[in-house]
Amino acid sequence: MKQTISFSQFNIPSIVGASPPPTTTIHRRTTTSSRRLSPVLAVASPTTSPSLHQVTYSMPPEKLEIFKSLEPWVFENILPLRKPVEKCWQPIKFLPNPSQGPEQFAEEVRALRQRASGLSDEYFVMLVGNMLTEDALPTYQTLFNTLDGVCDETGCSRCPWGIWSRAWSAEENQHGDLLRTYLYLSGRVDMLMVDKTLQYLIGAGMDIGLENNPYLGFVYTSFQERATCLSHGNMARLATEGGDPMLAHICGTIAADEKRHEHAYTRIIEKLLEVDPNATMLAIADMMKKKIIMPMHLMYDGQDPNIFESFSTIIERQGVYTSRHYAEILEFFIIRWKLEKLEGLIGEARCAQDYVCGLPPRVRKLESRAKKIEPHQVKFSWIFNKQVTT
């Protein structure tokens, strides 16, 4: 079954919107039909499906053998990027420890709250957003287990793809636990609304266009892990400026984990470009056309149907993750994966190469456009009924 991709319309990536290409080929295991896709909703509504038609199983069955053949390589090159549990940091190392006794614990909580008092409401909106992204881990692991050829078929598979996926999930789970506990102890946010938002988010799932296709999945995770590394790193900088060095240490530690995860997924794409350059190049272009969107793009708090758009505006204006960062990440991978130097590509894969390598200047235009966004008042249910100026 031949994978197809249309290059008739160049969609510029955005960290705010989330919509698939205008026309997509729907691949099934035995039949193929072309349908018009409706825009992906940016809201997780209790009564609304993210999209009317979802593309599934776009990887031809014969490609499964490629991922099977890569299992020894994964053992040698990807699994060593896991950290043994005994060498991993644990959230309690950064937080007030109740085992030290009630008086010491209370004193450490008071110190944490004093440090947190110097941070802005906008900062806590972004910190909740980062926590929700990390804490929606059940969705991400479930999504990975839909990818053909690399899924954990039994829940405890000894296949190296499954071993890596579980280890990655366990480390990401620590990030959410740490940020959630910090937020709880800070007293700065309405944890009831945060919890409701998380439940809505996990219940909504993700609609990021992976099509059960590991080529697309590993392109997405390469990009997303680098993006989250930058985001947490910028949050660390802002925490230092706001007078909370411990929170800066927390965010910086999480960023370091994300950097290591990025190395793993980047290596996988490098290997796929070596063994199957045409399909991999098509996958990179496909994900760029769909736009690499945040995992939490279906975020909903039960009240605001535009909460993700408002959150995206804040992180753009605060410089935590912007269209400039998006362009820089794209440029980084073009260089890292040596996309401009790939030779021997044929047909649509060569068109895909031209498209991706010519994309950064188009994305750069979003930076100047974003700077023209006028400030406006946004009310977040996570913050105790305070007005947040973006």
How is the secondary structure organized here?
Blueprint: E1 23-27, E2 32-36, H1 64-69, H2 71-77, H3 102-116, H4 121-135, H5 137-144, H6 160-186, H7 191-204, H8 214-241, H9 245-275, H10 277-290, H11 307-317, H12 323-336, H13 348-357, H14 360-370, E3 377-379, E4 387-389
Antiparallel strand pairs: 1-2, 3-4
Helix pairs in contact: 4-6, 4-8, 5-6, 6-9, 8-9, 8-10, 8-12, 9-10, 10-13, 12-14
Rounded Rg: 21 Å
Q: Please identify the top-level CATH class.
A: Mainly Alpha
- Total strand segments: 4
- Across the major sheet, the strand order is 1-2
The best one-word shape is globular
Structural class assignment: mainly alpha
CATH topology: Ribonucleotide Reductase, subunit A
User: Residue-averaged pLDDT, rounded?
Assistant: 85
Number of folding domains?
A: 1
Euclidean distance between termini CA atoms: 48 Å
H/I helix tally: 14
Low-confidence stretches: 1-50, 385-390
CATH architecture: Orthogonal Bundle
Residues in helix, %: 40-55%
Per CATH, the superfamily is: Ribonucleotide Reductase, subunit A
Order of helices and strands: EEHHHHHHHHHHHHHHEE
For the sheet with most strands, the description reads:
2 strands, antiparallel
Strand fraction equals under 5%
Short structural summary:
The protein is mainly alpha-helical and 390 residues long. The chain has one domain (23-389): Ribonucleotide Reductase, subunit A. It has helices at 64-69, 71-77, 102-116, 121-135, 137-144, 160-186, 191-204, 214-241, 245-275, 277-290, 307-317, 323-336, 348-357, 360-370, and strands at 23-27, 32-36, 377-379, 387-389.
